[in-house]
Automatic annotation (TrEMBL), chains A, B:
Cell cycle found in the keyword field: no
Biological process per Gene Ontology, one example term: regulation of secondary metabolite biosynthetic process
Listed cofactors: Zn(2+)
Keyword Lyase: no
Protein name: Fur family transcriptional regulator, ferric uptake regulator
GO terms, molecular function: DNA-binding transcription factor activity; transcription cis-regulatory region binding; zinc ion binding
Database matches in InterPro entries: FUR, WH-like_DNA-bd_sf, WH_DNA-bd_sf
Pfam families: FUR
Cofactor note (record): Binds 1 zinc ion per subunit.
Binding site for Zn(2+): C96, C99, C132, C135
DNA sequence: CATTAAATGCACTACAGTTGCATTCATAAT
DNA sequence: ATTATGAATGCAACTGTAGTGCATTTAATG
C-alpha cells in the first residue's frame, strides 16, 4: 500500500485508481488547480468524477477550495495537520496576475480583524493579487 | 439637475434614465448588489444594459466590484473620495452566511501583509464570512 | 433638421458548476 | 464461489452567470 493510499484511507476515502491519480497530480503541482486543469491533465478523465472527487476530498479534509477572485474554484492539498474544515487554517493565498497561478502561502496566516459590534466572524478569505516570485524575476 | 445626475456627470457618465435608476437603487440599498438583484428590482430592465451600466460605473469609479466568495459578482457604490480604481481603498467586506448579504466595511482597511521574497502585491481582497449584525440579534 | 456617437434591446454564445440516473466496480455476506 | 449491497463512475442533460455581436433607438451637436 502506497503513501497516497494510506493518506486517503486515513481520511476515510476509498483509494480508487482515479482518486490516487488526482491526489498524485495535485501533490506534484505546487500550485492550486482548477477542475479544468485536472480534466486537461488526464485525457480519459470524466468531468463529473473529478468534480465529485474534489468534493469528497474537500469534505474529508484532504483538499481545500480556494476562491482566488478569478471566479474559477481552485483546489489545493491540505498541509499535514491543517484543520481547514474547522476554519482554523486561515492562511492567505496569492494570485499572480501575470501567469495566473494561485499558490497557498501556508505560513502566512490571516491576521485577526476587529469587526463592528454585532458581526460574528466564522471564516475569512484573503487573496493578494500581484506578481509572483517566478514572474518578478523576468 | 439632481444630486445623482451631478454625481454621474462629475464622473463623466451620461446620466440616462436607467443609469439614474440603478444609481438610486444602489444608494438606497445599504448592501452590495448582484446584477440579478437589479434585474429583479426593475421588471422592465434589460440584463445587458444593467451589465454594461455596472461595467461603465466601475470603470469610472462610481461602483466597485466585490468578490465575496459566492461566485456571484456584487457591486457597491464607492464612498466619496474612494479611489478603488487605483487599488488604494482596500477595505474589507463581510458576507453573512445566514442572510447571504454582503456589506462593505469601509472603515476597516486590509492590514499590510508581508509576503515571501519575490512576491509583489498589487491588490488585495479580504472577505470575512459569518453572521451579520442583524442576524446575530435573533 | 441632419449628423453622429452613445446607449439600449435582442439574440446568441461560452463555460463553470451541478444534478439525475444508469452502469460498473469493489466489498462483504451467504 | 456466488450473490447481494452500496459506493464510485460515466453519460447526458440542465442551470445560471458572464460576455459578445449587431441592429435599433436615443440624445447631443451644429
Ligand atoms: Mn491554501
Ligand atoms: Mn466595498
Ligand atoms: Zn506569476
Ligand atoms: Zn445576515
Amino acid at each position: 500500500m502506497t503513501d497516497i493510499e494510506k493518506t486517503l484511507e486515513n481520511k476515510s476515502v476509498r483509494p480508487t485508481a482515479m482518486r490516487i491519480l488526482i491526489y498524485k497530480y495535485m501533490a506534484e503541482k505546487e500550485i492550486a488547480v482548477a477542475l479544468t486543469d485536472i480534466e486537461n491533465a488526464f485525457e480519459k478523465a470524466e468531468r463529473t468524477t473529478l468534480y465529485r472527487t474534489l468534493k469528497t476530498f474537500e469534505e474529508k479534509g484532504i483538499v481545500h477550495q480556494i476562491d482566488d477572485g478569478t471566479n474559477i474554484s481552485k483546489f489545493a492539498l491540505c498541509e499535514p495537520g491543517c484543520n481547514c474544515e474547522l476554519d482554523q487554517d486561515l492562511h492567505l493565498h496569492f494570485h499572480c496576475s501575470n501567469c495566473d497561478k494561485t499558490v497557498c502561502l501556508t505560513e502566512h496566516k490571516i491576521p485577526h480583524i476587529n469587526l463592528p459590534t454585532g458581526y460574528i466572524a466564522e471564516d475569512a478569505n484573503l487573496v493578494i493579487k500581484g506578481i509572483c516570485d517566478t514572474c518578478s524575476q523576468h
